[in-house]
Write a structure and sequence with these properties.
Elements: H1 2-25, H2 39-62, H3 67-84, H4 94-106, H5 116-128, H6 130-136, H7 139-152, H8 156-163, H9 176-188, H10 193-217, H11 226-229, H12 232-239, H13 245-260, H14 264-277, H15 285-298, H16 305-322, H17 334-342, H18 349-360, H19 374-396, H20 404-421, H21 434-437, H22 443-451, H23 457-463, H24 473-491
Length: 505
Amino acid sequence: MRSRAYLPSLGLLSLILYFALTLLSKEFNWGEGYAERPILEYLALYFSLFVLYALACVHVFKTPWNQTTFWVLVICGLLFRSATLPSQQIQEDDVYRYLWDGKVFAHGINPFEYAPEEINDYKMFKINNPESFQALYDERNQEELALLHKLKWDNDTALTFMERINHPHVATLYPPLAQYVFRLVHNIHPDSILAMRSMFLVFDLIAMAFIVMTLHVLGLNRNYSLVYFWSPLIIKETFNSTHLDIIGISCLCVSIYFLVRKHMAWSIFFLALSVLGKIYSGILLPFYLQRSWLIERKHAKSGWTGPVLHLSMFCAVLVFGYLPFVDIGWKVFEGLQTYGTQWQSNDSLFALLLYFLNDILQLGGKVIPVFGNSMILAKGIVFLVSVSVVSYMLIRKIPDPDASSEWVRNLFIAMVLVFLVSPVQNPWYLCWSVPFLCLFHWRSFILLTGLVGLYYLDFYFDYQEITQYSTWIPWIEYSPFYIYLIWELKNRPAQGGNYQSKATP
């Protein structure tokens, strides 16, 4: 009886905390009282939620499958999301860009063409520099800018949201599938954060459903889906911060399901959709093609027909996705280029590399022949290391084409590698790894989903003007993880860290 009440009790306590989080979020007003924002109180709530979540994970890892437990975790997960849906975003503002992109696209204008700053400034530019204006913008551009400027003033909410867009000098960097989702949300309810979160809930439930089905196909306890469905990181970053990653994550979950079923065409198709949601999962393509090749070879075929067809289909899906936007040429990738070359945030290993280049080699920000500067050089090194590691994984020990769990494990390793070496390690990027943790219970990475909450401590120090501590936040955040990871690598079971109960679903 005590065991039966354990998970519902954890769920009830968590639900109370999610309600408290929603109430606390109302204190995060936009544009005022930054120093008064209750960031420390938020962190106390987040880490309390993580402790309850960790206890729940340990419980399901040790408990045999039963249907009652499954429905408890599903109902509680839905209640957690319902409690969070009406909350005010805590320190995040990406959703305003999503809503604007959807508005732009819904009115027949390419969302990749104009940066919000252009729309804000175009009238003064036209008045003050008429010749330059006429040279830069043709008649179509001028008509579109006039329409966008009018849309900005459509209503008070639209104006407010438009003015909150971050990096307004950069055109959107979000890929085509995301743009279609934004457009659909606009058509349902313009300028509505709740509508965007409700749409994300649909993708979230798709992800959960396919995680459960994947666990079933692999012969694992379906209650392990709690690792995803109760994750405070997933809930906070999707239903409070309102980050779009769930679009690509859900497509990836569908793709992995078809991968373990060896339906390679469907798995490649949904992987391409995942990339069109956010490019993050593109690193996984070589593993899919390798398995396609091995499956075909096993059936005494040439081995190349399948991979070539699957690669062609992958490229065709990407081309089809981008086709409505390529009328502006390579400008469609301008936002991605800015992100790839300039942005850096919350990094750990990349920060060490940059420190080595700047302070040890004393390159600083100087221009380096061929490479540009130390930042570009560091990102080039990270890219080469990532490619080298993935290449090594592809050739070191090729799994049996029928060993689905081994293939999925390789995908997991590639995903976390990209995250750990990235110059941008925003907490929501780690959400991509959480579905894999349902299959492979790497406790170090589960711990990291809690530790990344310390990212928000940087805002507290900034608002309190004690920025001397900010550089230490990533090390407080990542050091316990790396220590635990090293221990886990030395002591994990031979099957690769999958701490499964012997129970069958």
